[in-house]
Amino acid sequence: MTATNLLQIDKLSKSFAENQVLKSIDLSVAAGEVVSVIGPSGSGKTTLLRCVNFLEVYDGGSIQIDGREVGYVDTSSRKRRGEVDLAGMRAETGMVFQSFNLFPHLTAEQNVMLGLRRVRKKPLKEAREIAQHWLSRVGLSHKADALPSELSGGQQQRVGIARAVAMDPKILLLDEITSALDPELVNEVLDVVRQLAVDGMTMLMVTHEIAFARDASHRIVFMADGLVSAQGKPDDLMAEVATNERLRNFLSRFSATAH
Amino acid sequence: MDAIIYSLPFLMNGLGVTLLVSAIVVALSLVIGVLLGIGLIYGPWPLRWLIRLLSDCIRGIPILVLIFVVYYGLPPLGLNLSSFWAAVLALTVFKSAHVIEYVRGAVTSIPRGQMEAGMAIGLIFPQRLRYVILPQAMRRFLPPWLNGVTDAVKGSALVSLLGVVDLMQAINQVIGRTYEPLPLYVLGALMYFAINYSLSTLSKVLERRYSYIRE
């Protein structure tokens, strides 16, 4: 792969005790690209995503964002980056969680502002303007002063997205962001993601929404058993069903919703 | 009865000492307990092990024994404390061990995702503690801690055993002069109760202030 990739993952491996979750993952994401990762549970999708902002410490291989190694000072020595250095890198990587993980003691606006104030060191007025801008982008201007406990799941997740993108990250990581939502709330969240894709936000998302992955991503990566089993443009990947049995088995479970 | 009224200033002095001992113990044990509590959760393993050992040992000793151990144990080590400070030290050590456990309980009850969300927006560890974890832990820390504060006030009566003239000791001395134990003990009980009732009223206000589920 060329150096133009924003995210470059090579031979990534990761084990939890005896269980090797990621065997040897090669994956790249170009700037402005939207890549979806699909696959059966236990295939390592979420672990892969969490390695990208070093919420999981990986064992082997390399992850680079904009040419900088994630988590380690360099690939060969495997010397861990210091806390400040690591935090600086994480600030460049937005993450939206399956279970929202909003800060329950802060209002929607304060949730978005915390990183702007304490990491980006923005003055109060500017931080508030940015927060208001993003809350309005996710359709929640009127809920700026609401606590997470006063919001629906869909609204909480939209605040979660606003909190991540307000930091102006190079890449946005979305970890099964609609899995914890009631079905009728899924679309309001996916619409926001669709808009971000249109705006050119680089995104890597783990999702079970196959139909959404098909029409919103430039490329779909199918993972199985800690390996990339197949990848390609959505239509090309779907065409691989004929030759890839695992993919066929996986997708057959979604056939009712995928079309 | 007159004798009791004449002894009131003396009793008030004792009350002052009780409040002073309680305040020092509560303040010191709060600082020490919070720092060691955070060390117990996030520190490197030798530190965690050491704090765990200390906390378990101290909480396993009756406070009365601890007071005498400190009082008689320090001079041979070349540390000569007045009985006031020996008592304060023993009570502080004892309370700190409990505060460590309140902190541990409160902080570990915060879901892991909170720390991760703090990491994801690029907060460094002390910022994650200050802006994410501790404000949330505060809500769960306050009720047991405030309960512990009233325990500290009551427990401070033990300093009288080292001859410190706190409220308890003052009462005993007045009884020694007047031979009227019952009214004096009742008066003492009312004074302790007044302190602790004010504290528990204050604690309700504080707990409401830190409950971020709006009512």
UniProtKB/TrEMBL annotation, chain A:
Its main location: membrane. Keywords: ATP-binding, Cell membrane, Membrane, Nucleotide-binding, Transport. One of its GO terms (cellular component) is plasma membrane. InterPro entries: AAA+_ATPase, ABC_ATPase_HisP-typ, ABC_transporter-like_ATP-bd, ABC_transporter-like_CS, MetN_ABC_transporter-like, P-loop_NTPase. It is found in: Cell membrane. The keyword Nucleotide-binding applies. It comes from the Bacteria. GO terms for molecular function: ABC-type amino acid transporter activity; ATP binding; ATP hydrolysis activity. Residues 7-250 form the ABC transporter domain. It is a peripheral membrane protein. Belongs to the ABC transporter superfamily. This is ATP-binding protein. It comes from Devosia psychrophila.
UniProtKB/TrEMBL annotation, chain B:
Keywords: Cell membrane, Membrane, Transmembrane, Transmembrane helix, Transport. The keyword Aminoacyl-tRNA synthetase does not apply. It is found in: Cell inner membrane; Cell membrane. One of its GO terms (cellular component) is ATP-binding cassette (ABC) transporter complex. GO terms for molecular function: transmembrane transporter activity. The keyword Nucleotide-binding does not apply. Coiled coil: none annotated. It is a multi-pass membrane protein. InterPro entries: AA_ABC_transptr_permease_3TM (IPR010065), ArtM/GltK/GlnP/TcyL/YhdX-like (IPR043429), MetI-like (IPR000515), MetI-like_sf (IPR035906). The chain crosses the membrane at residues 20-42, 182-199. Residues 15-203 form the ABC transmembrane type-1 domain. One of its GO terms (biological process) is amino acid transport. Belongs to the binding-protein-dependent transport system permease family. HisMQ subfamily. This is Glutamine ABC transporter permease. It comes from Devosia psychrophila.
